[in-house]
Amino acid sequence: ALKEFIMAQNVIDSPDTVIEIIQSLAWHQNIEVLDMSSNNQGGEGVWKALGNLLKCSSKLRKINLNYTRIEGKQISDIVDGLIWNKSLTHVSMIENTEITAAGWQTFLKNAINIPQLTKLDVSYNNIDDEGITVLSEWIKRTQPKILDISANEEVSATGWWMFAMDLPSCCVNINLSDN
Predict the structure, then answer these.
(1) Helix, strand or coil, per DSSP, at residue 160
(2) Distances (CA, A) of 143 to 41, 74, 115
(3) Which residues pair with 63 in a beta bridge?
(4) For the whole model, what pTM was predicted?
(5) By CB neighbour count within 10 A (0-12 exposed, 13-18 middle, 19+ buried), where does 27 fall?
(6) How many degrees, rounded to 5, is the angle at CA 91 between CA 29 and CA 164?
(7) Which of 3, 55, 74, 114 could be bridged to 84 by S-S, CB 3.0 to 4.6 A?
(8) Backbone dihedral region of 118: left (phi > 0), alpha (psi from -120 to 50 degrees) or beta?
(9) Do residues 155 and 128 make contact, with C-beta atoms less than 8 angstroms apart?
(10) Which long-range contacts (CB under 8 A, 24 or more apart) does 154-162 make?
(11) Angle, vertex CA 117, rays to CA 27 and CA 8, nearest 5
């Protein structure tokens, strides 16, 4: 049975082909790891297909969406799938610079509805002061084990201070380097 699927750094030149690949993964219910890092074929259909896959992948526990071309509104398609998925514990979304601060706020506000998520890496993104406030609320509600939010330069010194003051006294490994 297929346990891990890596479609990182692909050179597929058609979003339709990427959509077909993602849709075909629904037949493989034992996939535990999905890596779509450095996937240059974005587009609304690709992320909607991924959201649908997340809804039906009952054993998926880790997804890597690092360096992808997810645009602002498309984050909602992914978030919708994440909320439905009850097995996913690790999400990595490093350097998704096309997601706006508002898009990150949407992602983080909805991440509150993903209590099983224990590892989140959103380093090198456009998270701003409001997003970091939402992230703090997520930490209080879900108490993740690992959180990497390094190099989010949109957050002000005041935003970081408020974040630090608002953290609960739970066991969380947080990386704030390069901010």
Answers:
(1) helix
(2) 34, 26, 9
(3) 34, 91
(4) 0.85
(5) exposed
(6) 155
(7) 55
(8) alpha
(9) yes
(10) 154/101, 154/126, 154/127, 154/128, 154/129, 155/127, 155/128, 155/129, 155/131, 155/179, 156/129, 158/129, 159/128, 159/129, 159/132, 159/133, 160/132, 162/129, 162/132, 162/133, 162/136
(11) 50
d(CA 28, CA 110): 27
Q: How far apart are CA 44 and CA 5, in angstroms?
A: 21
The tokens for 51 are 């959201």
| Paired tokens of 42 | 């974005």
Task: Give, for all 179 residues of the chain, the pLDDT tens digit.
Answer: 789 998 877 767 788 888 899 999 999 889 999 998 887 666 678 889 999 999 999 999 999 988 887 876 788 888 889 889 999 999 998 888 778 788 888 888 888 788 788 888 988 888 888 888 888 888 877 777 788 888 778 888 888 888 887 776 655 677 777 76
Please calculate the CA angle 139-142-108 and round it to the nearest 5 degrees.
Answer: 60
Instruction: Report the distance separating Cα 143 and Cα 141, nearest Å.
Output: 6
Label the pairing between strands 119-121 and 90-92: parallel
Q: Give the CA distances from residue 91 to residues 87, 94, 161, 178, in Å, rounded to whole numbers and listed in that order.
A: 11, 10, 25, 21
Contact 108, 135 (CB under 8 A): yes
- Give the neighbor-by-neighbor strand order of the sheet with 4-6: 4-6, 33-35, 62-64, 90-92, 119-121, 146-148, 173-175
